[in-house]
Design brief:
The longest helix has 22 residues, at about 130-155. The protein has 8 helices and 10 strands. α2 crosses α6 (about 130-155), α3 (about 60-75) packs across α6 and α3 (about 60-75) packs across α7 (about 160-175). With about 270 residues, the protein is of the alpha+beta class. It has helices spanning about 10-20, 35-55, 60-75, 90-100, 110-120, 130-155, 160-175, 245-250, and strands at about 5-10, 25-30, 80-85, 105-110, 125, 190-200, 205-210, 215-220, 230-235, 265.
Length: about 270
């Protein structure tokens, strides 16, 4: 199934940064405003692990439940990087939440072309999941598979602690395939998609930018804006008291990139001036 056009809302400075660097910035998840959503997935998994361990009469199964839990306790230290998009074009909540007053822009990206580009850089692109029952079912299935995976490959002759240590990479790798995409239902109107990757601390792509109260680790995800396969679809100027000036200024960008579906101004009846 084809992916939708995905919109990244940002400031004027953000748009210039994306175009000039030919990249979008993915931020380490612990430094994002909704970083606690990742901890939410861990909490759900812990609940299922305790339930399985409590209900089982098999001591080995109980031990493996504890081993998976120990791995999850380290999961919040993983260097996971995320970039966010929305399915919604010209969204009032996005203008308000992610753009400075009267100076917002959104870049639209072809979801299929974007996915093809970022896959080669180690990123996966998926929609966020908001429904609590669906979240619970996803986590429960993962917990059950993780425990069964460990049990099926374990041999009595092996040292239990060392075996669990060797398998920890697989456990965490499968966990991050879904955990960063679980969000609270109150955000469901955003219809968010995320680029997600685990990038080691010593990776040369890792950089720092100033945040509100600390330096923030990020990586640049290359977009190939000047290539024939550019994922760039359109640009929309956000609500502003100077719409004509803002639209005219954007035409300068045509010298650097091509917007396959052109540029347009927001039609949202929103005023903050």
């Amino acid at each position: 199934m084809s992916k939708p056009i995905l919109h990244h809302y940002t400031s004027g400075a953000g748009v210039l940064g994306i175009i000039e660097s030919d990249s979008i910035w993915a931020t380490r998840i612990q430094y994002m405003n909704d970083a606690k959503e990742f901890l939410h997935a861990i909490e759900i998994a812990e609940q299922h692990l305790k339930k399985i361990g409590h209900e089982s009469d098999d001591d080995l199964r109980k031990k493996f439940c504890e081993a998976v839990s120990d791995n999850l306790n380290r999961a919040d230290k993983l260097t996971i990087y995320v970039a966010c998009f929305s399915e919604i074009d010209d969204s009032l909540s996005q203008w308000r939440g992610y753009c400075p007053p009267s100076f917002g822009y959104s870049l639209g990206f072809d979801g299929d072309k974007l996915e093809a580009l970022v896959k080669n850089q180690g990123f996966i692109l998926k929609p966020c999941i908001y429904e609590s029952v669906e979240q619970g079912n996803i986590v429960k299935r993962w917990v059950e598979k993780a425990v069964e995976y460990l049990i099926a490959r374990y041999r009595d002759s092996e040292d239990f602690t060392e075996y669990c240590r060797k398998q920890s990479g697989h456990i965490l790798e499968t966990f991050i395939q879904f955990a960063p995409f679980l969000k609270h239902s109150s955000f469901q109107d955003e219809r968010e998609w995320r680029l997600v990757s685990v990038i080691p601390t010593d990776d040369s792509r890792t950089e720092l930018r100033p945040g509100k109260s600390t330096l923030v680790p990020y990586v640049k995800v290359k977009l190939g804006l000047s290539s024939d396969q550019t994922p760039l679809w359109n640009l929309r100027v956000g609500p502003t008291p100077h719409k004509d000036l803002a639209m005219n200024a954007i035409t300068v960008m045509f010298n650097k990139v091509r917007f396959r579906n052109g540029i347009a101004a927001s039609e949202t009846p929103y005023r903050d001036w």
